[in-house]
Write a structure and sequence with these properties.
The protein has a single domain, classed as Porin (Beta Barrel). The protein contains five helices and 16 strands. A 16-stranded antiparallel barrel has the order 1-2-3-4-5-6-7-8-9-10-11-12-13-14-15-16. It is globular and about 75 Å long. The N terminus is likely disordered.
Length: 380
């Protein structure tokens, strides 16, 4: 008997009937996520272009009543495997979920999955999130290999524990890619992290809470801590979320604040750049969406983020890097029953430096005007 992988001529559904295909359609979701825009920037870049902002395909569904799966690919990312998790950056999700226990209130999810961090900015479907804060775009390890255990306390409240790789790339790969000195740092023997998360829905889902705490290790004997608090208001024609977070990193492996400090120290004899230690990142992100007349939406978002050096006697100090920005835009939904929108928005962000690093690092600014189309397509 030949294995089913021997020949590509084996049909996926043996003896498919209309009844079986209908049942399959009810159990599967096949989605295409798309956004493209003409962008006209000024500041750090002055070259206009038509860009593919989003192109992802997703397949998810129920294999049995208790077992489900999810697969999602980013069509514009590398398929080269990461050095630690052996998964390509193009894969957002590749996981299975098993529901068990009395009334199936428990679940276990294993595989590549989203970080269970309290962030509505990250939780929003990426088709509709035009620009991200540094917290989501640069600081977080967004999609990671993990095992999540969850329990539905009530219909409106659940808790999850997610054991995950701290970072998708290995310790040595990260240092090699930046060319930084290790300065005595060694890779953590168990480079894992743990998210503890609460999701809550109150007042008939009008107020939704998403809170998390994370503890992790990237380098041996260097422990990181993070708290994220996200709240969302959902009304008939008005949506808004506010995300607030604070992260202490013993080693700045996201490399957001370190370049500014390395620039300051570069003039010292025999200086070799390295990751800054004992750094605190904080951010606040607010977004509002309002359907002011049928099919027409106003969308706006703003964020403010800081980086501080917590080491004793440091002249780098609090808020040595500030990053803030906003967008304001207009959306039109031409087809009422389709998640398709024509959009335009103006976006501005800037990074500025304070304290000892102020005179060495130039402020960075970006102005951007965009016009385009997005479409979240439920194909099946």
């Amino acid at each position: 008997m030949m294995d089913s992988t021997y020949s590509g001529n084996n049909p996926i559904i043996q003896g498919a009937t209309a009844e079986k295909l209908l049942n399959l359609r009810e159990r599967l979701d096949f989605n295409f996520l798309f956004r493209s825009s003409a962008e006209f920037p000024s500041g750090s870049s002055n070259q206009a272009s038509i860009k593919l902002n989003e192109a992802r395909i997703e397949l998810k569904g129920d294999i049995t009543q208790d077992l489900s799966f999810r697969i999602r690919y980013r069509l514009y990312r590398s398929f080269e495997a990461n050095s630690l998790d052996n998964a390509p950056s193009a894969v957002d999700h590749a996981s299975v979920t098993y529901r068990f226990g009395q009334e199936k209130k428990w679940h276990l999810t294993a595989g590549k999955q989203a970080a269970n961090v309290g962030s509505w900015e990250f939780d929003t479907n990426p088709t509709f999130e035009y620009q991200y804060s540094d917290y989501v775009a640069r600081q977080l390890n967004l999609f990671l290999l993990a095992m999540e255990l969850g329990y539905e306390v009530t219909d409106n409240h659940s808790i999850q524990l997610q054991l995950h790789n701290t970072y998708n790339q290995g310790f040595n790969t990260v240092f090699t890619s930046t060319g930084y000195a290790k300065n005595g740092l060694e890779p953590a023997k168990v480079p894992f992290g743990l998210y503890v998360t609460w999701l809550g829905n109150m007042f008939d889902d009008r107020w939704q809470a998403f809170y998390s705490y994370n503890v992790s290790q990237f380098a041996e004997d260097k422990t990181d801590h993070a708290v994220s608090i996200a709240n969302k208001v959902v009304l008939d024609r008005f949506h808004a979320y506010l995300d607030v977070q604070s992260t202490y990193l013993a080693v700045d492996y996201p490399n957001i604040g370190s370049p500014a400090v390395n620039e300051l120290l570069a003039s010292s004899p025999a200086f070799t750049p390295t990751f800054l230690e004992d750094i605190n990142y904080r951010s606040a992100i607010l977004r509002v969406d309002y359907e002011f007349i049928p099919k027409w939406f106003i969308t706006a978002k703003g964020f403010y983020e800081t980086a501080s050096h917590r080491k004793d006697n440091s002249d780098i100090g609090d808020d040595f890097r500030e990053h803030y920005g906003y967008w304001a835009g207009l959306e039109y939904k031409p087809v009422a029953d389709q998640d398709m929108r024509l959009f335009t928005y103006y976006y501005y962000n800037t990074s500025r430096y304070n304290n000892a690093v102020e005179g060495i690092n130039a402020d960075q600014k970006l102005h951007l005007f965009a016009i385009g189309v997005l479409y979240f397509v439920n194909i099946l």
